[in-house]
Amino acid sequence: MAGICPDLQKYPVRKPCFKEGDESQISNYRPFSLLTGFSKIFELLIFHRLKHHAVSNNILANEQYGFCDNVSTESTVFRLIETIFSA
């Protein structure tokens, strides 16, 4: 594999997105990036491969709740409360 990515696939199109407040103030805008379809699919493939590698090799800590299956913010809160009460 040569590791070559076409130039058009590397760069997103950036557009300003209005947040709130005075529209004439540049600080009231944030950048919004539009990626190509290829970039989105490639990003998903890499994410799933990295996630599979981390889970199958038991790399993630037990306290890791972000990007994990079958856990949520409620799991985090429950674990915190359980730890506080058991202390």
Helix/strand order: HEEHH
Strand content: 5-15%
N-C termini distance: 53 Å
Rough shape?
flat
Give the C-alpha Rg: 20 Å
Instruction: Kindly state the number of beta strands.
Output: 2
Number of domains: 2
How is the biggest beta sheet arranged? Answer: 2 strands, antiparallel
Instruction: Flag low-confidence runs.
Output: none
Overall pLDDT level: 83
Number of helices: 3
Widest sheet, order of strands: 1-2
Structural class: alpha+beta
Bin the helical content.
40-55%
Structure description:
The protein is α+β, with helices and mostly antiparallel strands and 87 residues long. It is built from 3 helices and 2 strands. It has a two-stranded antiparallel ribbon. The chain is flat, with a radius of gyration of 20 Å. Helices cover 44% and strands 14% of the residues. It has 2 domains: 46 residues, no CATH class; 27 residues, no CATH class.
